[in-house]
Amino acid sequence: MELSTTVSELRYALDTFFFLMSGALVMWMAAGFAMLEAGLVRSKNTTEILTKNLCLYAIACTTYLVVGYNIMYVDNTAGGIMPSIGALIGTQSEGADHSLESDFFFQVVFVATAMSVVSGAVAERMKLWSFLVFSVILTAFIYPMEGYWTWGGGFLSEAGFSDFAGSGIVHMAGASAALAGVLLLGARKGKYGKKGQIYPIPGSNMPLATLGTFILWFGWFGFNGGSQLMISDFENATAVGQIFLNTNAAAAAGAITALFVCKTTWGKADLTMILNGALAGLVAITADPLSPSPLAAVSIGALAGGIVVFSIVAFDKIKIDDPVGAISVHGVCGLFGLMVVPFNNPDATFGAQLFGAVVIFAWVFGSSLVVWSILKTTMGIRVTEDEELEGMDVHDCGIDAYPEFVSVK
After folding, report:
1. Domains of the chain, first to last
2. Residue 271: CB partners within 8 Å, gap ≥ 6?
3. Would you call 196 exposed, middle or buried from its count of C-beta atoms within 10 A (0-12, 13-18, 19+)?
4. If we measure between CA atoms, which residue out of 6, 12, 17 comes closest to residue 222?
5. Percent of all residues in the chain with a pLDDT value above 90, rounded to a whole number
6. Torsion angle defined by CA atoms of residues 217, 221, 222 and 227, in that order, rounded to the nearest 10 degrees
7. What is the DSSP string of 241-253?
8. How many CB atoms lie under 10 A from the CB of residue 89?
9. Helix H segments across 226-291?
10. To which H or E segment does residue 144 belong?
11. Phi, psi at residue 126, to the nearest 5°?
12. Is residue 48 within 8 Å of residue 128, measured between CB atoms?
């Protein structure tokens, strides 16, 4: 066997393994979302939110395999709008850097991430089965369409839109779908008063929420690092190291900024805001974790950590009830991440970034609003007032997450 052939096979094996391990890290983010959301909802809704997170992951893996990946990547016209519609993942291209199967696995966990954003925002009052039906449509069709326009080589890609690992394509898209659902769903009972009062509804388990945030932070190294797509040569290996550094720096800066904003605004270190500050930094740097210097990454994360606090407060003031702050973290900070890309990447322009952001939001929000409206008319999307009061665990699952302790006298 020639030396060049051996080297080529070794690089193929290494890049495939890198893809698979990065995908496994992103898959672990499903656990992070589950723990974060389980900690930020009330105890009576914990089993149901865990059921949602497990089932949406299973649904995403199935629908994206059957049709979604094909829509996004297989046999599409460069610069086009309408994808080819087929089934399964196509065939391995000759001379590829990694296996087709590893590429599918890495992509499918991103789809699940977008859907996970939705589950927290609609928590504590949405019907389980309506949510699962929507999960099928988002992961099979809505997400793959905008994925083709961007990462699949469609018209947004041709227009110069740049989103390295998915601040807009994944995170803002998930938030856009969530916003459409929340607007039709309405707020939880007791969240807002008739005279504009805002009543906090504390989460049930801060240790779980914190664990979930650390899991997401950890998984994000695969999310951003794996998006380099290769690691088998000097240039790409160095780039992956830079991406890891910048990803971590942005998250840390986001948490620190949120801490200081909370202290200066309310005199308290609000843990939920600090957790969201770290996640905001991660979302913002995802649009381009490679081009910025480490100090620029710190600045991006710090700004996002401040933005998310004020965004969560602003949504509450206009009575948009988001129990976990998902729309602010993934939507507002996803948009922020897209728009700061040109400051560090000379190949990106503000016009192309804004165009891409508007198209992604309009498509995902608009199509999601239609789907949610159909579900509201047919199946209904909101549980009854009695079911909401009793809790989703009893109504949907029949299992309490935290069986009550029996006191012995």
Report:
1. 7-225+236-397 (1.10.3430.10)
2. 206, 209, 210
3. exposed
4. 17
5. 88
6. 130
7. HHHHHHHHHHHHH
8. 21
9. 234-266, 271-285
10. helix 143-150
11. -95, 145
12. yes
Q: Are 275 and 36 in contact (CB under 8 A)?
A: yes
With a cut of 70, list the residues of the chain below it in pLDDT: 1, 3-4, 404-409
Cβ distance 235 to 220 under 8 Å?
no
The values of phi and psi at residue 347, to 5°, are: -80, -10
pLDDT of 90? 87
Give the per-residue pLDDT at 372: 98
Number of residues that make up the chain: 409
69 close to 107: Cβ distance less than 8 angstroms: yes
Report pLDDT for 407.
Answer: 39
- Measured distance between the N- and C-terminal CA atoms of the chain, rounded to whole angstroms: 79
Residue-wise pLDDT for 105-150, tens only, equals 999 999 999 999 999 999 999 999 999 999 999 999 999 999 999 9
Instruction: Report d(CA 77, CA 71) in Å as an integer.
Output: 11
pLDDT at residue 403, as a whole number: 81
